[in-house]
Structure formats: C-alpha cells, structure tokens
Amino acid sequence: xxxxxxxxxxxxxxxxxxxxxxRVRRILVRLAFLIGSVLVAVVxxxxxxxxxxxxxxxxxxxxxxxxxLVLRAGPILPPTRLPGKFDPxxxxxxxxxxxxxxxxxxxSFTQKTNALGFFTHEVIPRRPGEYRVLLVGDSFFYxxxxxxxxxxxxxxxxxxxxxxxxxRPLKVYNFALPGYCGNQELVVARTYAAQVDADAVVLxxxxxxxxxxxxxxxxxxxxxxxxxxxxxxxxxxxxxxALGPLRHSLIARVLSFTQPAGTWLxxxxxxxxxxxxxxxxxxxxxxxxxxxxxxxxGVVLQMTKDSLDTGVRGxxxxxxxxxxxxxxxxxxxxxxxxxxxxxxxxxxxxRAFIHQPPDAHPNAKGxxxxxxxxxxxxxxxxxxxxxxxxxxxxxx
Length: 396
Hints:
Helix content is 51%, strand content 12%. By secondary structure, the chain is an alpha/beta fold. The strands form three sheets. It has a five-stranded parallel beta sheet with strand order 4-3-5-8-9, with helices on both faces. Strands 1-2 form a two-stranded antiparallel ribbon. Helix 5 (152-162) packs across helix 16. The chain starts with 14 loop residues before the first helix and ends in a 12-residue tail after the last helix. The relative contact order is 0.13.
C-alpha cells in the first residue's frame, strides 16, 4: 500500500504587487494629464495675452515700462525727459507758493512750497549766532504722509529749543523733494547753500531708489543735472540679462511688474560695482563741495524696509549688501555718516517707526529718530559753543 503524500499548496497570485503597479500607473497618468493641462493653459494664456495685452507683448513698450518701474526715479530715462516734463537744471522743480496734498487712506496732508519751490521756511536774514543747516534729499527727508510739525527739519528745531545746553539758535532749511537722486541734491546744495547762508549741509541717501539713479546721472560743467548715456545703456542691458529667457514669456513679463519682482531686479543691479562707483562719484563731489565752501557736512544713509528685515524678505532682496557698500564708500571718502538701519534696530521694533505697507517711509516716530540721530551727531555740539551776541537759544 502506497504512502499518501500531502497535496501541494497552490501558488498565490502576486495580487499586491499588481495592485501597486496599477496605482502607480494611475498616478503617473494623472500627473501627465495635469502637466499637459498646465502646458496647454500656459500656451493659451500666452497666445490670448499677446492679443489682449499688446503693450506688454511689444518689446519696446515693455522694456521702457520695466526700466522706469525698476529704476524708481526720474527724470532720467528718455520718455521722462521730454520738453515741458523736466527742468534742464534740476530735472524737476515745483511751483513756488503752491499747495500740494498727499492722501493716505482717509487722511490728507497738505504742504505749501516757499518762494523757491521747496517745502520749508522762507529764507530770511540770519539772527546773531544762528547755526543754519541745509537738508537735501528725497521723500525720506521731505517727509511723506506726516504733518509739517513732524518733518525732520521742524523736529531738529524742536530738539534745539528743548536742549538746555544749547547756547545758539538753530534754523533748518529742508530742500528735499520726493524722487530726487544724489546728483539732483548736489545741484540743489551748490545752488542754494550760499543763499540760505548755511553752516552745514546734510545729504540724505536712500539705497532703495538712489543707488542706480546716481550711477545713471551726473552734474555737467555748467552745474546742470544730466544723464550718462553709456550707463543708461548698461542698465538696460543688465535688466534684460537679469530676466534671461523668461523675458520672452508674457506671463513672466506681467509678473515682472509686481513689487517683489521689481525690488529683486533693482537690488540685483544696484549691487554691481559700476553702480557703487557711480555713487562714490556723487558722494566725493558732495564732500569736495562742502570742503571748498567751508561747510560742515554729513550723510544720512536712510534705511529700507528690506534692509531692516532680517527674515526671508531681507535674504531674498539682499538690499543690505547695497547699504553696506555705501557705508564703505563714505568711510573711504572721509564722509561722516549715520546708518539709519542701526538707529532703527537699536530703538526696538522697527515696524513701529515706519508707515504700514504699501508705504515704507518713516512715520512721525521714525522721523523723530532721524532728527535725534542728526542732532546728536552734528548739531548739538555746535549749539553748545558760545557765540558772540547770543543771549537765547530760542528758535521760532
């Protein structure tokens, strides 16, 4: 009798492996469908956009618009230097004795220009022993969206009145205008320092829109604000190069008009050696002018929101590199300066001292910090010096 053998166990199909393979295939199919759909959508948007947004699709019109947006200053580029749109000496001037109103939300701020077209005192005869300061700069010194009494010139005079050690009166003339760059401010200083009878000139520099503009402009032998064509061409070429192949995409062109993209492009170019060299020329000429006229001088390097932010924003835009380069230039050229980044950081949370987005100018508290820094560094000691014929430090 044969010995019985156990029945063989049937093989189990590889169901699990098959199931996984099918799931992977389904994911890949869906992914391919998604990618294809996105590509089709991009092509459709590009084609339709070129019909609808012809101004963006046109190379010449797009380039001109982007160049002006990234530069953030004028009149420098050809479209802004047409007859009637710019002044041959200063670039831009304001009408004397005229009111201008700024609006921020539901608030309005009205200022009136003096006889020379600046938002400051009328020029009057000097009082005995009076120390006079001329401020030249852009909207940071001018004081956007704050009251007249909160502007840096008024606050400097307040500090002098409050200073028990002051033995001389102080008068501050604020000849800053929004949108000015360093070469325009140099023309203003050369033109009006003697008329104001200034003892000191303080120059405000804002890396966020002065750096490139300073490299694209100059002051000619006649003392006029002029452009440097070869540097304008260099700026235009670098801007196109920064975009690379994306420059040909309509979607990328639209995105390049956004604030983050414009800021990134600005600082990418502003860090270039040729741009920093252009700023060196401006600062050196400012120092030479003050030395020749026997004037005290100083430079206030205004902070940018990007340079104050130590988080992602600061790392992405890297504006601190431009600020640091300007610091080095001032050091190397023997120009006394104040770095407002340090002042704002030492004061606490810097966000409390600037207007909230989208505007990043100093508010009244931030302007006070600027005035205090200037007063401590360059004015306080001058007012403490005895001067013949002075009996009161009061300032109207």
